[in-house]
Amino acid sequence: MESLFGIMLAKSGFLNLTLGQVIMWFIGFTFIYLAIKKDYEPLLLLPIGFAIFAVNLPLTGLMDKDPKGLLYIFYHYGLEWEVIPPLIFLGLGAMTDFGPLIANPKTLLLGAAAQFGVYVSFFGALLLGFNIPEACSIGIIGGADGPTTIYTTVHLAPHLLGATAISAYSYMSLVPIIQPPVMKLLTTEKERKITMRQLRPVSRLEKILFPMGVCLISCLIVPAAAPLMVMFMIGNLFRESGVVKRLSDAAQNELMNIVTIFLGISVGATMSAEKFLRPESLLVFTLGLVAFIFSTAGGVLFAKFMNLFLKEKINPLIGSAGVSAVPMAARVSQKLGAEADPKNFLLMHAMGPNVAGVIGTLMAAGFFISLAAH
Amino acid sequence: MWEKAFKIFSIGFPGVFLTLAVLVFFIELMGKIVKAIEKKKD
């Protein structure tokens, strides 16, 4: 009887539980708490949090490669096969209105300038001892684009996936806290009060030609960005063509929701104690924050630089929206603009650099993947 | 390693700007062509 109990105990998780796993449970519960109580990116933090908890239950074999555990199957076919991030981009494309960008195309350059933090963080990571593929994966956090961060990390440094993905999504939800001090520091009251002319209406034909043209040009210049860019632009064509409403709705809603579930679970599943509880994870979080701050600064400073040459000045606050984080970053620009002048409506103007930031981050990721791999 | 890192930076960052600058040019051009087509239709 005693030996039967002993065998049962030995086969149970109790004797195999480690301190690291318990710490990871608390990290998982913290994400669940932040999602439910604070509403921080709940669509992702909730499944990620629970997957962290689940993957750190001893002897469950959920992430075993042989025989394949359930969460490993999600991770392998979803992320390693690079299926989930492009599908997320399909949904994003179907949800994105490029009208403000087409009406004021020079704001695309703000989306490029806001990649500054990506490269600051890239060099920071190298200085801290990470190798080049790891530094690329950490740097891309500064693009404030979760799926692109995941896609780049899976390509270049899959062992850092948990840390980079969590860092990107955490800071994206903290954009309203991280960005305003940087924006205020780099702009004067007078600059924050600059009002911008109402955007011109954009024709349907322009909106239909846009995804095809952008896809053609960007994939010719950076073929490595094609998987994400192609899906992004197909989704947008679904939306703008107006003839496949069912597909557009499916991409925006049902498909996006399903893929988001598997994305969250797959990312959380990579965060086992032995992989996550390392000093590198802390460094990734620090460098991610640095990347966000410098990307914000890059966008704002470049808007000021553009104003040196423009007859019609742009409000530099919209520069910070060049980090992706759609539409949170644009809302922050609107909020700060309205604080300086309550009659100033910057939201639509900020949406231009905001969606340009998504394209800019995709390009930066494409360059990283093509250059770091060789 | 540093040589490769600087190569990645010196191609990547200007590359992002260049790509988006080409897109600016494309959108401006597209806007003008569409405007001309719509004017002709009217």
Topology readout:
The complex is a heterodimer of chains A (374) and B (42).
Chain A: H1 2-11, H2 19-37, H3 42-55, H4 70-80, H5 84-95, H6 99-103, H7 108-113, H8 116-127, H9 132-139, H10 146-156, H11 161-173, H12 175-186, H13 189-192, H14 204-221, H15 226-241, H16 245-252, H17 254-269, H18 273-276, H19 279-307, H20 328-340, H21 347-372
Helix pairs in contact in A: 2-3, 3-17, 4-17, 5-10, 5-15, 5-16, 5-17, 8-9, 8-19, 9-10, 9-21, 10-11, 10-21, 11-19, 12-19, 12-20, 14-15, 15-16, 16-17, 20-21
Chain B: H1 2-41
Q: Can you describe what's shown?
A:
By secondary structure, chain A is mostly helical. Chain A has one domain (84-372). Chain A has helices at residues 2-11, 19-37, 42-55, 70-80, 84-95, 99-103, 108-113, 116-127, 132-139, 146-156, 161-173, 175-186, 189-192, 204-221, 226-241, 245-252, 254-269, 273-276, 279-307, 328-340, 347-372. Chain A is globular. The model of chain A has no long low-confidence stretch (mean pLDDT 92). Chain B is mainly alpha-helical and 42 residues long. Chain B has one domain. Chain B contains one helix and no strands. Chain B has one helix spanning 2-41. Chain B is rod-shaped, with a radius of gyration of 18 Å. The mean pLDDT of chain B is 92. At the A-B interface, helix 7, helix 8, helix 9, helix 14 and helix 21 of A face helix 1 of B.
